[in-house]
Amino acid sequence: MAEISISNQNWDRLKIKLKRKYNHLSDDDLMFEAGQEEKLIDHLQHRLNRKREYVVFTLKKGLLNIDNNRL
């Protein structure tokens, strides 16, 4: 089970942050449906060539301050 929970509304904002930080990610890389956090983490782990802990940390950090533009 994923360590985070992302709503569709929050995902829209988080996706923008991720695209700014990792401009090589495509729209297909950032496809997400609520409840599919585990699939998203696994995919980003592969695309970013980072460990799971880093991907989860990055997503949590983005969700923590969802209203600002920084990741």
What's the number of helices?
3
Tally of DSSP β-strands: 0
Compute the CA-based radius of gyration: 11 Å
Shape descriptor reads: globular
- Listing every helix as H and every strand as E from the N terminus to the C terminus, the arrangement reads HHH
What distance separates the N and C termini? 24 Å
Q: pLDDT below 50 for ≥5 consecutive residues: which ranges?
A: none
Mean pLDDT over all positions: 92
Range of strand content: under 5%
Helix content: 40-55%
What structural category do the secondary elements indicate? mainly alpha
Largest sheet: none
List the helices and strands and how they pair.
Elements: H1 8-21, H2 37-48, H3 52-64
Q: What attributes does this structure have?
A:
71 residues; mainly alpha; 0% strand
Describe the structure.
By secondary structure, the chain is mostly helical. It has 3 helices and no strands. Helix 2 (37-48) crosses helix 3. The longest helix has 14 residues, at 8-21. The radius of gyration is 11 Å and the shape is globular. The protein starts with 7 loop residues before the first helix and ends in a 7-residue tail after the last helix.
